[in-house]
Structures are given as structure tokens and as C-alpha cells.
Design a protein that fits this description.
mainly alpha; Serine Threonine Protein Phosphatase 5, Tetratricopeptide repeat; 6 domains; 0% strand
Length: 475
């Protein structure tokens, strides 16, 4: 494509192809640069090419999703079998959590048994978000058996098995993916995540180190996510902060704004956990600027919910409620009404802080009901279940509190991005069993918690409290 555009600097479709190639190797700044170039040159193209470029361009920002949908629909009216339009619009419908439309478009993309894995992988992902993991597995196995074997199909299948909690089968698929293409660095992060969820922390850390050694910009950034998640799991919050800061510097060096926002989100929580509210709000401000520039509405909503949580922890309730109002209005003006769960989560936290446990439950149960099923590394199922467990404990519904905390322990990808809730669920279960008079179970869970945080940073209050409780219970 570079040779094509050198020969013809106004070759719009060549710039589009270059943009998609950069996206596939996760160089998103280049993707946006060349897609904008294609869009600027698309005015004199035939409808089929012009509408495709327009739709792809508008899809780069959630603020223009409406225009993207309109362009894809116009293209499909003219050319009902345009596979790329079906596939790319399905990706957008998935972003909007319109699962029926996403499934319909992916089904249309694969109806002619095109050898591209994209439609099959996308359809499998939709089924995962709907909790239909067996169907997701069947889609990918059908592709492997009846069309062709490929490393990406194996990677997607490994993700499905990860979601199902079948970690050995997931690792077996990773081995097959590696045998088909040992050069793809992203498979190392998936392998590390599987080992992490399986409980083999040393092997997970070794895998992230192998990822770091790849030297690829994306690999250098993503390995830090693995390291910081492992450190949070073991209570080493200061080390996790250092990895997050390092990753943000790399994101800025390599112009990876999407990843940078994710690391800012983690740092907001980490700084709050160590009592540094001012630093947490500083990272909100940095991430907010990026999210607005990119038109990333979903990230804006996550950031506003985090900002509100910061304000609640610093006892600035009035500001937190103002942030909640801003969050609610922004979601209601968007195209994904299910995202209102972020507002309900924040309001649930507000009621928890005030000790209004029944009101907290009303918000948190509503918010949790709008979550898709576990799928992917960034979902937040554990934070909803943890808050619900605290609320149930507050109302004295100890069995429901226990079920909420135990739900976190049984999660797969739903606990990956927030390991603190997994560990703290052990601590909270100890308190629940203590209140139920089950001394043996209380000691068991407190000791499991203390084992996880045996090398934690000094001064974490839960560690001291758990030790005191164990001593008293044993006495």
C-alpha cells in the first residue's frame, strides 16, 4: 500500500487498507492518521468505496456512531452482500451492547463461508457477552474444522475457554496458536492471564517477562498490565503504581491513548487505596482530556464513575452527586442505555458511604443486572459483586452477602482487571462467617486473605484487622 500511494498520492482505498493494517498490529495512532487521509480523499469515489470509508471513519469516535450506522446502512441497501460493512457495523453494535444487531450482522458476514476469521471471532465474542459460551466454542471449532486452522481462531478459542474457567483447555489452544504463529506477542498476555486465573502466579509472571522481552511497543506496554495486576493481587500497591506510571510513559512515547486511559483508570483506584486523593484526581484529569479528544464515550463514563468514587472517599459528597448527575446526563444522551449501570454503581457507593444499605442495594442490583456476561480483560463484574456483598452485609442478609463474595471467587475474566476485589472478598467472607458464628470458616478465609497479602505493603488496615480477628477467634 505504501508503494501504491507513492505511485498515486490520492489513492483513498490504499490509505484505508494501510489504516486497517495498522489497526491489526495495534498501532492505533497510525490507523487514525491513514483513515482520516482516506476520508479526506473519498469525495470522488464510487458509492461503494466512499460509503465504506465514511462509515469506517465515523466509527473511530463514539460521538459519531450515529453517522457511521447511517453510512453502513446506506451501503448495505446498495450492496446487501458487502461483507466488510456487515463485519464492521457488527463491531460497532457490540460496542453499543446491541447484541441482537451484532449477531445478525456477523451472521451475514460469514454466510458465504469467507475464509477471514473476523466474522467468526466477532460472533463468538457476542455469544460470550450473552453467556452462551458453548455456542461461541462451536462457532470457532466449526471454522477450524471446515474452513481453515489459524492462530487467531485458536487465540479466540482460548479466550472462550478462559471465560468458561476451563484453563487447561485454554492453555492447550494457546499452544496450538503458538505452533501456527510464534511471532504474535499478544498471545503471551492471554497465556499470562490464563495462568494468573488458574493460580500459577510464578508462571504468569515469567510469561509477562517473556512478553516484555519482545521489544514490540505494544508488548512493552501490555506486560506492565500483567505485572501490576499480580502486584495488586499480593497487596504490593506501591509497586503496582510504579508499573502503571511506567506504562503511561510508554503509552505517551508510542502515542497509545486508548491504553493510556486504561492505565489512568487503574491508577485512580490505586492512589485512592493508598489515601492519595489528589493524585487520583490528577490522573482523572489527564485521562479525561484523552477520552474527550478521542470521542471515547464509554471511557468518559467509566472515568466519571471513578471521579465520583474519589470524591466520596474524600468525603466531598456534594461534588460526588454533581458528578453522578453529569454521568447520568451524558449516558442518557448517548446510544447505549445499558451504560446507566455506571451511574447506578456510583449512586450505590454513595448510599453505602451513608449507611443506607437498602437504597444501595436498589442501585447496585439494577446496575449489575445490566452487565453482559464475563468476556475480555477489562470488565468490572467483581466490583459490582463486591459492593453488593457489602450492602447485603449491612442489611444483615448474611447468606446473600456470602453468595456475592463467593461469586467473585468463582469468576474468570470478570475478576481479572480488579484483583483487589478478589482478595478482599476473602477478607469479607471471613467477617461474614464470623458474624454467622462459623469460627472454622472465618479463620480459613482470614488466613487465605493473609496468605495472599503476606508480602503486602505495610500499613494496609485490612491486614492488621484480619490478624487481630484470627488471634481472637483461635483464642
Amino acid at each position: 500500500m505504501e508503494r501504491a500511494t507513492a505511485a498515486d498520492p490520492e489513492f483513498a482505498m490504499a490509505y484505508r487498507s494501510m489504516a486497517m493494517a495498522y489497526s491489526n498490529i495495534k498501532q492505533y495512532a497510525k490507523h487514525e492518521e491513514y483513515l482520516r487521509k482516506a476520508f479526506e480523499l473519498s469525495g470522488r469515489l464510487p458509492d461503494r468505496e466512499r460509503l465504506l470509508i465514511e462509515a469506517d471513519f465515523y466509527r473511530t469516535s463514539q460521538t459519531t456512531y450515529g453517522q457511521a450506522i447511517e453510512a453502513y446502512n446506506r451501503l448495505l441497501e446498495l450492496y446487501p452482500d458487502e461483507r466488510i460493512a456487515h463485519n464492521n457495523s457488527a463491531i460497532m453494535y457490540s460496542d453499543l451492547e446491541q447484541w441482537d444487531m451484532a449477531e445478525e450482522r456477523y451472521q451475514a458476514a460469514i454466510k458465504d463461508k469467507d475464509p477471514s476469521i473476523q466474522g467468526y471471532g466477532g460472533l463468538a465474542s457476542v455469544y460470550c457477552y450473552l453467556g452462551r459460551y458453548e455456542e461461541a466454542r462451536d462457532v470457532l471449532q466449526d471454522y477450524i474444522e471446515n474452513i481453515q486452522d489459524s492462530f487467531q481462531a485458536r487465540l479466540d478459542l482460548a479466550d472462550v475457554y478462559l471465560n468458561m474457567g476451563k484453563f487447561d483447555q485454554a492453555l492447550a489452544e494457546m499452544d496450538r496458536a503458538f505452533s501456527l504463529n510464534p511471532t504474535i506477542w499478544s498471545q503471551l498476555f492471554t497465556r499470562g492471564s490464563i495462568l494468573y486465573l488458574k493460580g500459577d502466579m510464578d508462571a504468569a509472571r515469567d510469561t509477562y517477562r517473556e512478553l516484555e522481552a519482545k521489544g514490540n511497543p505494544g508488548a512493552k506496554i501490555v506486560c506492565n498490565l500483567g505485572f501490576l495486576l499480580l502486584d495488586i493481587l499480593h497487596g504490593r500497591l506501591q509497586s503496582a503504581i510504579a508499573y502503571s506510571e511506567k506504562a503511561i510513559a510508554l503509552c505517551q512515547t508510542y502515542n497509545q491513548a486508548g491504553w493510556e486511559i486504561n492505565f489512568h483508570l487503574r491508577l485512580i483506584d490505586l492512589y485512592l487505596n493508598v489515601g492519595k486523593g489528589e493524585e487520583a484526581l490528577s490522573h482523572f484529569n489527564q485521562a479525561w482530556k484523552l477520552a474527550v479528544e478521542r470521542g471515547a464515550l464509554t471511557k468518559q463514563w467509566l472515568l466519571l464513575a471513578s471521579k465520583g468514587a474519589c470524591q466520596l472517599k474524600t468525603q466531598d459528597v456534594e461534588s460526588a452527586l454533581a458528578t453522578a448527575g453529569e454521568l447520568q446526563a451524558s449516558i442518557q444522551s448517548g446510544l447505549n442505555p445499558k451504560a446507566i449501570r455506571e451511574y447506578d454503581y456510583l449512586m450505590g457507593l454513595n448510599e453505602l458511604e451513608k449507611g443506607n444499605f437498602s437504597a444501595a442495594l436498589e442501585h447496585l442490583e439494577k446496575g449489575k443486572s445490566l452487565l453482559p456476561a464475563e468476556n475480555g480483560p477489562f470488565n468490572a463484574h467483581s466490583k459490582y459483586s463486591f459492593a453488593l456483598g457489602k450492602a447485603y452485609h449491612g442489611t444483615g442478609e448474611l447468606e446473600k452477602a456470602r453468595a456475592s463474595f463467593e461469586e467473585i471467587l468463582a469468576m474468570t475474566s470478570g475478576r481479572l482487571f480488579y484483583p483487589e476485589f478478589y482478595v478482599l472478598a476473602l477478607y469479607e467472607l471471613g467477617k461474614v462467617f464470623q458474624d454467622q458464628g462459623n469460627t472454622q470458616k472465618a479463620v480459613e478465609y482470614f488466613e487465605r486473605f493473609l496468605e495472599s497479602w503476606k508480602d503486602a505493603d505495610p500499613g494496609l488496615p485490612e491486614v492488621g484487622d484480619a490478624k487481630e480477628r484470627v488471634a481472637a477467634l483461635k483464642q
